[in-house]
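Exercise 7b. Backbone tokens:
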């Protein structure tokens, strides 16, 4: 098994069976790598290393893009890239991490705390994605990066939502949106929301909040404690109905996208502590409300367009 790639000094990566050398023009650092891995994982390397004469192939590209020339033997390549970035790039090409387990099955596992050390550290992911784009890395590598981005959906939900939306990784973006129900969107600063790449992407979050607030409000206001008179207490029925309706108005007036409506209504239980019939009816109504509210979409990809 290769070493954990993201806990090492990137500049020190070297393979015992290397057959190719890449040297950083910026730092003078040489990397001993496998030519086959470069060609398999990168369309840029594949195109460059396959043609007989390379010369100044990339001279017309943006400054600092990729390559200078191979040496006379064709075994050493100079690249106008920092040693740190080359090290990260070659780690992906030679020691690709496993997909992050908790997100492999569809980005559904709630991650209360920061992921364990098996996830690529979050601050590295933007640079890795930039390298993946610059060197046209394979879909296999990109899919692994997506799972590691998804690992942080609950710890950095707004940033993950922004990155994933920019990258077009819709399942990761949708997962992150489910962790953006609280606080209210209005609490974010302008600097915070800059990570969201477009007005439509931000608007989807607004729509999600609006949909949930309206739907939760409809559910709580429509829930009856004695539906069709069923289970109505002959002694306290009228009073219980009055208390229930009053509580619904209080809860309905302060609903946010992340409000646990059933829990808010459960506070009414102490009002009926002296009557088993009324307490039973309240518990049944709250349970039904909890069931209905659980079905209200929590992700941007689940709300009506």
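Sequence design result:
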């Amino acid at each position: 098994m290769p070493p954990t790639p993201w806990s090492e000094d990137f500049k020190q990566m070297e393979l015992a069976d290397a057959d190719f050398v890449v040297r950083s023009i910026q730092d003078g650092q040489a990397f001993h790598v496998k030519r086959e891995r470069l060609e398999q994982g990168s369309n840029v390397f594949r195109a460059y290393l396959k043609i007989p004469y390379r010369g100044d192939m990339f001279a017309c590209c943006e400054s600092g893009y990729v390559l200078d020339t191979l040496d006379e033997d064709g075994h050493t390549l100079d690249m106008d890239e920092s040693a740190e970035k080359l090290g990260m790039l070659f780690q992906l090409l030679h020691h690709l991490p496993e997909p992050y387990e908790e997100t492999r099955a569809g980005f559904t596992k709630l991650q209360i705390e920061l992921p364990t050390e098996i996830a690529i550290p979050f601050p590295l992911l933007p640079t890795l994605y930039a390298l993946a784009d610059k060197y046209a890395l394979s879909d296999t590598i990109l899919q692994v990066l997506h799972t590691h981005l998804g690992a942080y959906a609950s710890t950095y939900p707004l940033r993950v939502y922004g990155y994933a939306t920019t990258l077009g990784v819709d399942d990761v973006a949708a997962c992150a949106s489910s962790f953006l129900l609280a606080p209210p969107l209005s609490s974010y600063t302008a600097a915070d929301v800059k990570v969201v790449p477009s007005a439509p992407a931000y608007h989807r979050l607004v729509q999600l909040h609006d949909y949930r607030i309206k739907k939760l409000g409809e559910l709580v206001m429509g829930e009856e404690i004695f539906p069709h008179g069923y289970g109505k207490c002959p002694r306290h029925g009228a009073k219980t109905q009055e208390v229930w309706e009053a509580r619904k108005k209080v809860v309905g007036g302060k609903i946010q996208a992340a409000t646990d409506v059933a829990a808010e209504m459960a506070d009414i239980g102490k009002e009926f502590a002296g009557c088993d019939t009324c307490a039973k009816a309240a518990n049944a109504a709250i349970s039904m409300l909890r069931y209905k509210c659980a079905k209200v979409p929590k992700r941007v990809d689940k709300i009506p367009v």
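Instructor comment: Residues 101-179 form one domain. The CA atoms of residues 57 and 210 lie 53 Å apart.
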